[in-house]
Amino acid sequence: MKKRKVPHTFVIVFFIIVIAAVLTWIIPPGKYVSEQVGDETVMTFHYLDELNEMSGPSTGSGTGSGTAEFHAEPQTWQVFSAFYKGFVKQSNIIVFILIIGGAFWIMNKSKAIDMGIMSFLKFTKRLECNKLMQKIGVNNIVIILIMLLFSLFGSVFGMSEETIAFALIIIPLAVSMGYDSIVGLCMVYVAAHIGFSGAMLNPFTIGIAQGIADIPLFTGIGYRAVCWVILTVVGIIFVLLYARKVKKNPQSSIMYEEDAYWRKSAEVKEEELERYTPRKAWWVFAFLAAVLIVFSVLYPMTTLKIGNNTTTLPLLPIGTAVFVLLSILTLRKTVHYFVLTLLFATVYFLVVGVLGYEWYIMEIASLFLVLGIASGLAVDKSASDIAKLFLEGMGDILSAAVIVGLAGGIVIILQDGGIIDTILYGLSKSMSNMGKIASAEIMYGIQTLINIVIPSGSAKAAITMPIMAPFSDLIGISRQSTVVAFQFGDGFTNMITPTSGVLMAALGVARIPWEKWVKFIWKFILVLIVLGALLLIPTVTMELAGF
After folding, report:
1. How far apart are the first and last CA of the chain?
2. Average pLDDT of 25-51?
3. What is the CB neighbour count within 10 angstroms for residue 342?
4. In this structure, what DSSP letter does residue 5 have?
5. Quick check: 227 and 537 in contact, CB under 8 A?
6. Cβ atoms within 10 A of the Cβ of 465, count?
7. Which residue among 26, 111, 191, 238 has its CA within the 20 to 30 Å range from the CA of 529?
């Protein structure tokens, strides 16, 4: 009997778009609009016919235009135009992916990553001589430390899109350690989104949700820190168990065949890596050092914003000094180590830029573009060679960019059909006449379901919190509990829904088909959802600080 083949990811996403279009014929369109009731502004839901009868502007924060005039229609041929609109909607992430792909391709051609991985593996083998390390497992320590770091990044400043770039670094390392691309992606993407779900200070979810709910910003951090620890530990255990299984039997990985790409790129023998330092590398170092010194003089102090707290430190001068010192040391050995120094400096200034200067993906993409150009020049490539390599890298990662645009079409169909708010309204009605715990869990369930079609935390907070926060007052649940329900509901399903541009981009650069990712991750997502439901109970039944 012929084995049934799973459809291509593009086909699966297109059929989801078609299903979304069918729903626009079944579910009546409607929208939440803000209305003034006495001294308060409340969110009220109206169907399309009611809205068209209303007159005068409104400042609704739903998915429509923000006025009482509301246009929506059942979707038909729009399933094809949604592809174009999805590209426009997700253009920032698509351009980010292409620039990152081109920049990393240039850096990879320098063989610096290969040299770094070989040096790292040699170091871990030396550590394995230690009896304590043998018992714990050096590779286990590497996985734990990397996941802790990225989970903390997700929890503190909402790292999400940034994981796309880091996946291109960690996945080759994971494969070289005897694991698969799934373990590599879990170390970065899953870890960051676990932290995102159990966020302590994430301004994009906690900050916005608490602001809308009229709660002092970042209060209740104590219990959220407990949640973050529990979720992170569970995530690390899950990845370690899977990693051990793959290590024992690499062919047990569902990505064994697809990972031939990563295994081939890791098959570089040490004797193939010639150690050299061209004169041009010293000129690249001198130019970058001069630029960093100028910026250090112009911005001697950087104010980091972490939650409500601010800390001012001389981060640019410190980073510049370390870069200069490491560059001189590495250039004396080989240009490969200098390119790795450029990579570490890029990561350092990325963190400083995000926390201190409110950088987003445009600035991050620009930073990595500089990394790619500098890497190419350092290994004595001409400008034309660098341009050709950049185009090769963009072509190599093009499928990842295309799937992001296609997945964006799902949300476009639901928005143009005007049914997102209707779905939310129908779900919110189910909370009436429920107990406190049941109501909190239903809020959590609603946020989880809504997140499947609106993976943006800030957008979902703007839509749902004006409805959920006043409702929690009526049923005697603290608004802080409502924020926690939003927080958990916003985070977990981001790791599985095809409407998430970041997920589809991360899977694209990792070369993991979405259907195989679902096969791997669904049980873990289910565990997280159940765990989130359990962690939500104390916010209703116990006296917690800030609740």
Report:
1. 59
2. 78
3. 25
4. P
5. no
6. 25
7. 26
Dihedral sign (CA 276, 282, 284, 289): positive
| pLDDT digits 0-9 by tens, 480-503 | 998 999 999 888 998 998 888 889
Q: What are the residues whose beta carbons fall under 8 Å from the beta carbon of 54, sequence distance 6 or more?
A: 46, 68
Minimal CA–CA distance to 530: which of 432, 448, 467? Answer: 448
Among residues of the chain, what percentage have pLDDT more than 70? 90
Whole-Å CA distances, 213 to 41, 207, 430, 448: 12, 10, 21, 19
Round to whole Å and give the CA distance between 545 and 526: 29
- Cβ-contact 197, 491 below 8 angstroms: yes
How many other CB atoms are found less than 10 A from the CB of residue 359?
18
Q: What is the DSSP string of 206-262?
A: IIHHHHHTT--TTTTHHHHHHHHHHHHHHHHHHHHHHHHHHHH-GGGSTTTTTTHHH
pLDDT digits (tens, 9 = 90+) for 434-476: 778 888 898 898 888 888 877 777 667 766 777 777 777 767 7
Tens-digit pLDDT profile for residues 50-99: 777 765 544 443 444 444 456 788 899 989 998 899 888 888 888 888 89
Beta strands per DSSP E along 446-499? none
- Residues paired with residue 45 on neighbouring β-strands, in sequence order: 32
- pLDDT tens digits, residue range 236-268? 999 999 999 999 999 999 999 989 888 887 665
